[in-house]
Amino acid sequence: MSEIKVNNLTHTFSKGTPEALTVLEDINLSFPSGSFTSIVGTSGCGKSTLLKMMAGLFDPTDGEMTLDGAVIRGTDRKRGMVFQQDAVFPWMTVAKNISYGPRIHGASKAEQQAAETKWIEAVGLKGFEDRWPRELSGGMRKRVDIGRVYANDPDVLLMDEPFGALDAQTKERLQSDLLETWRQTQKTVIFVTHDLEEAIFLSDQIVVMSARPGRIRHIEEVALPRPRSNEMRLTSEFLDIKRKLWNMLDH
Amino acid sequence: MERIQKILRGRFVLGALSIAVVLAAYQWITMQPDNNPALLPPIPNIIASFFTNIEAGSLQTTLGASLYRIFLGFFIGTTLAVIIGCLVGWYKTIEYLVDPLIEAIRPIPPLAYIPIIIIWFGIEEFSRVLLITIACFMVCVVNVIAGMKNVPQVYVDAASTMGASRFQVFRTVAVPAATPFIITGYRIALAAAWTTLVAAELIAAPSGLGYMLQEGRRYFLTDQVMMIIVIIGACAFIMDRTFRAIQKRLMVWSEARE
């Protein structure tokens, strides 16, 4: 069980602005255990802010979030996060990056090694164990980021436009691989993106947000069958959803 | 690979060439009929002074005394700088407490402390080491603080969301991320150590390279003065190169190339 709930959440930025700016207003959401949910919306709708609050990087002005009933306060290994920016530690090899979580939580050498072997294989980085991050491409570094979070065994994965900076082909590969990992682990994933196709391809449920202040406009249940294949991106069902959601976004 | 070797060789050759040209020009000037060797000693005289002082054993003792001061002052100063700099750069409370103090003291050149140190502690070994310690600390600590403040937020957030405590983030993320700055701090401190050492020994020392310079001036031994200048240059150069090698070793992960 690992269900996240957002109850009556409102967030206001008051620092550095003459008038308080409401970025999120009256948000109520539920992310069922094991589901894959995307949050989409144009920039400024507060989707990243919402995700960072779920990670515990800062607290909402009003309202609360819970993970399995317990109020979220501060960061915790239960809620892992993958960032848009490159967060791979450049001073550690690929393997050491992967086993970072287990290491700081006191895992034995053998356990760390096991985590390295398992997750390097799972994210497709076999043979790159001893490389420095600077020797990897952007897509491979993203794989390290994802593998590192999985190796830390969180209950929930929060992903903040993780593939935003990658080229189209790399992006599609990583999306398919992410779905495969998600299928095997059945962890709750909350995925923020502004890319509708990405959201539809990945998700069970898509939360569409409107901007200024950030509100929930619509929640779309994606009925496309799983496992999803790249060919599905061009089917009429897929494109129908895309058209419907596209019309809801502020352009 | 071959190309790199080629460039390096070219670089080395050109560097050696420029030094050789300057030396040759110097020697040519000293060979002019109206040159006064007491003011501009020819290169052979400078070399001769080197061997005379080696034979007498005075150069070894001098060098030993100076290097001892440098190492001790450098070691204590930079160690304190790393410890205090890390704490100041990472913990807000400590920063608010200590940073204004560092900022207030920082613009004062360490040599300005010479009189007060002599008044308090006399012309002792302790005074000279203390001065070098202060100089090394001040230049190094500023770099360490800057390094800690420049740790990319995304690394800190990544570690925190994996459940790392504030101290774990400090130890496993902030310190390694700040290493490039810290090493730069060490290198600047080493240069400061040499500057301060020579100045301190010129003013107040019964031994050391600065003392030998002063002695050379007093007895008009220009070749000795020149010889010591070359020795100081060579020592500082060797130490800086050693540091660069260590830096390269520690920073294999870094994208930065020389």
UniProtKB/TrEMBL annotation, chain A:
> What SUPFAM superfamilies does the database record attribute to this sequence?
P-loop containing nucleoside triphosphate hydrolases (SSF52540)
UniProt-listed InterPro entries? AAA+_ATPase, ABC_transporter-like_ATP-bd, ABC_transporter-like_CS, ABC_transporter_ATP-bind, P-loop_NTPase
CDD domains, alphabetically? ABC_NrtD_SsuB_transporters
Occurrences of domain ABC transporter (ranges): 4-236
Against Gene3D superfamilies, the record matches this protein to: P-loop containing nucleotide triphosphate hydrolases
Residues folding into a coiled coil are none
What is the superkingdom listed in this entry's lineage?
A: Bacteria
One GO MF term on file is: ATP binding
Q: Which UniProt keywords apply?
A: ATP-binding, Nucleotide-binding, Transport
Q: Family per UniProt?
A: Belongs to the ABC transporter superfamily.
In Swiss-Prot or TrEMBL terms, this protein is called: Alkanesulfonates ABC transporter ATP-binding protein
| Native source organism of the sequence | Candidatus Rhodobacter oscarellae
Classification of source organism = Bacteria, Pseudomonadati, Pseudomonadota, Alphaproteobacteria, Rhodobacterales
From TrEMBL, chain B:
**Transmembrane parts of this sequence:** 12-29, 67-91, 103-123, 129-146, 188-213, 219-239
Q: Which residues are in the ABC transmembrane type-1 domain?
A: 59-240
Q: GO CC annotations?
A: plasma membrane
Q: Which Pfam families match?
A: BPD_transp_1
Coiled-coil regions, chain positions: none
Provide the membrane topology annotation.
Multi-pass membrane protein
**Record keywords:** Cell membrane, Membrane, Transmembrane, Transmembrane helix, Transport
Locations listed in the record: Cell membrane
Q: Name its GO BP terms in alphabetical order.
A: alkanesulfonate transmembrane transport
* Free-text function comment from the UniProt entry: Probably part of an ABC transporter complex. Probably responsible for the translocation of the substrate across the membrane.
Q: Family per UniProt?
A: Belongs to the binding-protein-dependent transport system permease family.
Q: What is this protein called?
A: Alkanesulfonates transport system permease protein
Organism from which the protein derives: Candidatus Rhodobacter oscarellae
